Amino acid sequence: MKNKETKIALFFGGKISRHLVLIKKAAKKLGVRLDLVSYNRVFFDTETLKVRLRKFQISTNNFQTNTKFQITNNKKNDGVDVNEYDVLFFRTTGKHWEEVDLINYQLKITNYELGKKPIIVDPIVLSGKPSMACKAYQMLTLKRSGIEVPKTVYGSLWFLYETMKQFSINNFQFPIIIKGSGGDRGTRVFKADNLEEMEKLVRELRKSETEEGKRYMLQEFIPNNGDYRVLVLGKKVLGVMKRSSQSLEEFKNNYSVGGKVELATLPQNILDLAVRAAEVCGLAVAGVDVMVKNNSKLRITNYELKNNLEKEKMSDDPKDYVVLEVNKGPQFKGFMQATGINVPEEIVKFLVSLKND
Ligand SMILES: Nc1ncnc2c1ncn2[C@@H]1O[C@H](COP(=O)(O)OP(=O)(O)O)[C@@H](O)[C@H]1O
Ligand SMILES: [Mg+2]
């Protein structure tokens, strides 16, 4: 590995998380130059017409203490050229598509002028379309690509409600899932057991729809004893964990809402399916959520579950599985705990390998 020659920028929004610190430490250990770059550092001015990165973070303490805020040790407009990096990993994009697009705009210009071609992760970033990172678009894309997803209707909340009231399309049956097209860690996923519950839910969510522009989908509820998180890096599966809710009142299996995590395996066909799901969604570093759909084929005893013999009974037919979503910039705390895989190191190695390909 030509580690030392590869310069990586990892872009992130919000505060520096534990995950980011782990990736930074892993890079250091591997001798790779990796900079954590907050989107707050992106700037340009119309005189130089260059989108660059400020060299230093502005301390927010300055705002809090009301002292005159200063950019320390920094000349006016001094900045880092985004083209200094060989690999640009946009780990999060969510609220920052504007900055993502500006950086890409700069890269394209320099690319044209200098013939330099940095590597962009994930490929979806190149499309510049935030909607493509949302769950609704993923449902459409996945199903079109022949990958099964839960039966889904997208539309306004009242339309979804009417759909259930009249059973007009697709013959949905309760219980159903109402799911925000955006959102993660189980924050915008809801279940309703009957029409009254659904109406209550719709009324509660309406405000976020009209005032914040949130979008929702109606989904069939798939009975399950957990789901699988497949971590994909490029064309390879790094590992699989199973997540299962530990409480009867909780239908969500997310680690963030208390789901148990354990090492798991899936038939090769299904691992291939996960890799393809990530690919069609334009993601290279992805957490693919997979659920067994046809559970009747899967009568597992506790003994088999405990001894990880589950997979021997598992169907290897991709049609028996649904992809719930493909996560960009997946969390990996629970995954490391369950699998023992050093995810941050593997991510760094993967990013370096892209340069050397
Ligand atoms: N159609 C569904 N049927 C049954 N359970 C679901 C369905 N969709 C989501 N869930 C449950 O909710 C959890 C979160 O849903 P997911 O689509 O992965 O969104 P998030 O981004 O919040 O993780 C899943 O891990 C699963 O346990
Ligand atoms: Mg999920």
TrEMBL record:
One of its GO terms (cellular component) is cytoplasm. It comes from the Bacteria. Residues 139-352 form the ATP-grasp domain. InterPro entries: ATP-grasp, ATP-grasp_RimK-type, ATP_grasp_subdomain_1. GO terms for molecular function: ATP binding; ligase activity, forming carbon-nitrogen bonds; metal ion binding. Keywords: ATP-binding, Nucleotide-binding. Pfam families: RimK. Gene3D superfamilies: ATP-grasp fold, A domain (3.30.1490.20), ATP-grasp fold, B domain (3.30.470.20). This is ATP-grasp domain-containing protein. It comes from Candidatus Shapirobacteria bacterium CG_4_10_14_3_um_filter_35_13.
